[in-house]
Amino acid sequence: MTHARDERTALCDLFDRLGPDAPTLCTGWSTYDLAAHLVLRERRPDAMGGIAIKPLAGYTASVQNGLKAKHPYPELVGMVRKPGGVYGLLPSLDEAVNSLEFFVHHEDVRRAQPEWEPRELSDDLERIIWKRVASGARLMLRKAPVGVVLHRLGGGVALGGPRGGAKVEVTGRAGELLMFCFGRQRHARVELTGDPEAADRLLDASLGV
Prior knowledge:
The protein is an alpha+beta fold. The protein has nine helices and four strands; from the N terminus they run H-H-H-H-H-H-H-E-E-E-H-E-H. The chain folds into two domains: 3-110, no CATH class; 123-203, Nonspecific Lipid-transfer Protein, Chain A (2-Layer Sandwich). Helix 2 (31-43) crosses helix 3, helix 2 packs across helix 4 and helix 7 packs parallel to helix 8. InterPro entries: CHP03085, DinB/YfiT-like, Maleyloyr_isom.
């Protein structure tokens, strides 16, 4: 098993356990919506553009809603469970692209439930996550209103946000820093140090790719 498959399987097991109406950290989305999004992402490349490009978002939303109308929730979860499209043909690509995608969405479901706690991640997954955070910090934090210094517990520093002006230091494990940088700031177990007003602005900023 790869990390991508592990996270995919764990997310689908959680989907099955919680049912279609459970909340997620994706604003306005239930578990049913998130399952449809993941199927769209892998099996409907014609509709993927709206995930990142606002003028195309209407079409993407209509396709996502169409998937929900066509497929009962258990069927959609089954489609998520098995890599689709090119990811089903190239396991190495699935691992490269989907390890973080499914980690974040797994946490989107976990952390929307009451009394969640951070998971203990393997050293290998922590290392992979930190490598991606360190290399992608500038991109993920490009909309940060203040400078950001990421400190990984266990070693490692990455920078993002404006190069001048106020700076906020964000300290945590690699998985928590990834959730922070992906726009889940208030659901990441991290420590912020610096000017309190700058920290509040950072917590409310739109971050991520």
